[in-house]
Amino acid sequence: MSGSSKRSLTVGVLGGMGPEATVDFMARVLAATPARVDQEHIRMLVDHNPGVPDRHAAIAGTGADIGPELAAMARGLETAGADFLVMVCNTAHAYTDAIRAAVRIPFVSIVDVVMAAVAEHPARVVGVMAADGCLQAGLYQQALAAAGREPLLWTAAEQERFMALLWRLKAGERGPAVRSGLQALAASLEFAGAELLLAGCTEIPLVLEQGDTGVRLLSSTDLLVRHTVALALTTSIQEE
Amino acid sequence: MSGSSKRSLTVGVLGGMGPEATVDFMARVLAATPARVDQEHIRMLVDHNPGVPDRHAAIAGTGADIGPELAAMARGLETAGADFLVMVCNTAHAYTDAIRAAVRIPFVSIVDVVMAAVAEHPARVVGVMAADGCLQAGLYQQALAAAGREPLLWTAAEQERFMALLWRLKAGERGPAVRSGLQALAASLEFAGAELLLAGCTEIPLVLEQGDTGVRLLSSTDLLVRHTVALALTTSIQEE
Description:
Largest interface: A-B, 45 and 44 residues
Oligomer: homodimer
Helix content of chain A: 40-55%
Mean pLDDT of chain A: 94
């Protein structure tokens, strides 16, 4: 670009985990950006890499370590010109340290963004809707406990039902069966005492929205979208 | 990645022109990929750069030359690991030479992909629905003439109406007014004798679909999607 101009920050997106969740994130970023013309939108460098091996197997120790691959993606986005990084997958945040160690630019954790929203809500018992790997890594249980909240999880049978729905979502299913299945699982956490629900998996908002649940549902996707847009637009760089 | 594995090709996407069209392209790539799990999807490196200055002004000579910026985006995607490039904007294809000169990997032109589909259709008169810059650069008029087809364009007043609808689309409008406006403009080309219509602007399929027109409508977006998926999946690389 020539001439002196102010530009918003460029967002680097570690994506493809899963594919639909990344495209959904991007669409929500566009919708959340107050732009009337193309040029007022945010630049996003996206590594849409669905080939990252199964996160749940990696965390369980039965699959390959994906830390090096996520670190390489982060470095690639930094080299390409990203000013800060986000990752559209809660479970993969188990590798936050590996990502942060690989780059000099900030990595905005979805867990931190969600916890900032939790802090504004008085709920003591918080229902965590998340995938196996995310729970096994303890991402939200530890953060909630540190914040003086009580994390509430599904029973083993319910968790298994969630994972089955998640695989159907990833296979492209969007019908009422998947939605009502998720609604039932959300209701079960409410009946067990959850005063607030976390959609701690970026596939959940593909079918489940606020209004489908009896208590407030915090969407990790939407919270990351809002934080990303705010950060990119409020911090601008003066160019030559 | 460790171990010997076959992988599909990585697609580099010059995007953000406009933002909605790029996200629409990505969503259509996912839908067109025969995948049941994340890992069967295609890797896309996306430079979603809505800041590229106005293409129409650049082509008209009243705005900055955007060739260098598109070339830099292409080089960045090549460096990041793309095996081939596509660009989700017909008008910006006026800079195809600048992009091809900047990289060693193939750049798949949307115009070539559309013309391959035209070749399979017997139409003599082809209605071109495209934006000002695309027409001023003569991209489809020259390609159609070279293929022995007769390009049919809107009147100046109709072209102005199309551009007004395009800006409304870019501003996020998706209502029936925009759709019926585009339907009327498509019908006008049909009445004037078009036996085939080209949606030669990636914003058009955001609201106008086959079924909205009386004659066959070739969507440049969908044709690029199909070609991209086929190329990425049929050509695979053996990795160490």
